[in-house]
Amino acid sequence: MNNTLTQLFLQKKERILNVYCTAGFPALDSTVKIIEALQQAGADIIEIGMPYSDPLADGPVIQQSNLKALQNGMTISLLFEQLQQVKKKVTIPLILMGYYNPVMQYGLQKFCEDAAAAGTAGIILPDLPTYEYEKMYKSIFEKNGLSFIFLITPQTSEARIRQADKLSSGFLYAVSSSATTGGSASMNDKVGYFAKLQFMKLKNPLLIGFGINNADDFDTVCKYASGAVVGSAYIKAIAHVDDEVATTEKFVKNIKG
Amino acid sequence: MRKPLKKYKHHQFSSPDKYGYYGEFGGAFIPEMLHANVENLRKNYLKIAGTKKFKTAFNKLLKDFVGRPTPLFYAENLSREFGTNIYLKREDLCHTGAHKINNTVGQILIAEALGKKRIIAETGAGQHGVATATVCALKGLECIVYMGEKDIERQAPNVARMKMLGAKVVPARSGSKTLKDATNEAIRDWINNSEDTHYIIGSVVGPHPYPDMVARFQSVISKEIKKQLKKQTGSELPTHVIACVGGGSNAAGTFYHFAEDKNVQLIAVEAAGCGVDSGMSAATTQLGSVGVLHGSKSLLMQTADGQVTEPHSISAGLDYPGIGPMHANLYKTKRATFLNITDYEALDAAFHLSKTEGIIPALETAHAFAALHKLTFKKEDVVVINLSGRGDKDLSTYMKSAQFLNNE
């Protein structure tokens, strides 16, 4: 696989910051502004959430952002239109995160073609199982030059981590604890798990996500992985502000230190 | 004497394949955070349920605690009215007042065998919540029940029962504030408490192995019907079996042992709400399309963009935008006939059954009875309706609607 995401990991090995935002949140036209602001502020990857009515793996903060985005009128088609507008200005990799059902209704083949055309490099669908992915969809993602990223948790067996690593490209997403997004558990309590992953010498770089709230958390996980994903903390930061651009700048600087 | 029956392939309709698929429906579409628990259950549920220890405990509880076998009652007045032979499977006489407890007894024994200490459940009408709270009280396990805020209001007696049984009832405030959202909250709880918790799903929905496990525990309904019919009519097979369907647990149990016998008509009755085309309905097979919700691929009410839509039914137990994968397959293959009944028709049927047979049914169950008007029967037909629950919990709704139905 060769795309902007795999290129990034070839060039940069540490302290990679992936920031999650929900498409169409806080306002319908926020997405473009936020992507530009995140790139400007120094994010390395932007993970764009496609809002869904029933986001099972998400805590209250991202649930609320999904609900608001849907009320605002966000859809996958509209997101692709917005990404087309900003495509020329974006040099850092964009990846899409969402639940399987809206993608299934859009049509997986068309989704992959349109996602690639809109300039995205990778896809995360946490509720698409490896069995279905391998049997039906792997070749479609690959043909469109899209990385597919699987999640692993502290409860994922070693054999299953190896399988997820084999099937993923770009990076492997290590969930810090068995929880929904936006937790407040201390990253220092999880270092045993992170060290175990580091020791496994996986094919893909690791990004650690779920519950990364501040610079301390980011520094801790970066000792064991190539970087981190920040989601709920960022959504919370931009939920009720007038100036998303200034807030984004400040937020990214604070995390990266 | 009836002619010999054509048989389908063994377990073609009642059981999934090894990946959890009933035809094209089923599977396990879950985030990795749920994988360890679901996989643990998948590997062990048949093993545990196959042990002598489990079978002895399960059968003893069904007999002495639940009160099984439940009677099969020949409904003389209804039979006369419809010119046929109508039998009622009295699941309303189960302890706690509905079929739901068959499944919770089975799952609490599974949870015990897996060493789980904390039980969570979702509930719509509250019958599954009460049945879960009941078995948790019996076994001394902590019980948390998620229930939509709207359902907490309209099913107040069941909320009180759960509390008296020692369960904590947590309101689900997201989305439509009904069963779908209660299920979301229960799943999130399980993600956050994966080590010590077992999730007792109340219907034949959710990721594999839940639909199969719940259907097996409910299959005691059709197993008993067969035995009782044989004794009462000389043949163990009816011509029709009728059950209401929300997620579909009572229908799964009622159809289970008849699904492979082609000459038994399976009739599933969905809630039309204010009418299938009114925009206020829960008739999933009529309004839904193939999609993924709560961990399985099935039929689902949704927008063109794949957002799950809010259903409507006067009955909280049928107010769900999906249907179990087993039923989606029965619909797709035309093995079962799917009918739908409006809120008004269901209310009318509830009053009618109360007055003709002296049985007040649950609002969910009333939908199955209303379907009698949409079918034609021969004199010699043998029709079994699963009387899935009793109507005590719905009395306030019944009283409120009495004036509109001229039944005062």
In CATH terms, what is the fold-level topology of the largest domain in chain B?
Rossmann fold
Please list the strands of the largest sheet of chain A in the order they lie side by side. Answer: 5-4-3-2-1-9-8-7-6
What is the domain tally of chain B? 2
CATH superfamily of chain A: Aldolase class I
Shape of chain A: globular
Low-confidence stretches of chain A: none
Q: Give the helices and strands of chain B as they follow along the chain.
A: EEHHEHEHEHEHHEHEHHEHEHEEHEHHEH
Largest sheet composition of chain B: 6 strands, mixed
Q: Largest sheet of chain A at a glance? A: 9 strands, parallel
Please give the CATH architecture of the largest domain in chain B.
3-Layer(aba) Sandwich
Report, as a whole number of angstroms, the end-to-end distance of chain A. Answer: 32 Å
User: In CATH's first tier, which class of chain A applies?
Assistant: Alpha Beta
Structure description:
The complex is a heterodimer of chains A (257) and B (408). Chain A has a single domain, classed as Aldolase class I (TIM Barrel, Alpha-Beta Barrel). Helix content of chain A is 48%, strand content 14%. Chain A is built from twelve helices and nine strands. Chain A has helices at residues 4-11, 30-41, 60-72, 76-86, 100-106, 108-117, 130-143, 158-167, 191-199, 215-222, 232-239, 244-256, and strands at 16-22, 45-49, 94-97, 122-124, 147-148, 151-152, 172-175, 206-209, 227-230. Chain A has a nine-stranded parallel sheet. In chain A, helix 2 (30-41) links the parallel strand 1 and strand 2 (45-49). The model of chain A has no long low-confidence stretch (mean pLDDT 96). Chain B is an alpha/beta fold and 408 residues long. Chain B folds into two domains: 22-64 and 100-213, Rossmann fold (3-Layer(aba) Sandwich); 69-97 and 220-405, 3-Layer(aba) Sandwich (Rossmann fold), CATH 3.40.50. Chain B is built from 16 helices and 14 strands. Chain B has helices at residues 32-49, 52-66, 76-82, 100-113, 127-139, 149-154, 156-164, 179-192, 210-218, 220-233, 249-255, 284-287, 325-332, 343-357, 363-370, 395-402; strands at 21-22, 25-26, 72-74, 85-89, 118-123, 142-148, 168-172, 197-200, 240-244, 265-273, 289-293, 296-300, 336-342, 382-386. In chain B, strand 5, helix 5 (127-139) and strand 6 (142-148) form a beta-alpha-beta unit. The N and C termini of chain B lie far apart (45 Å).
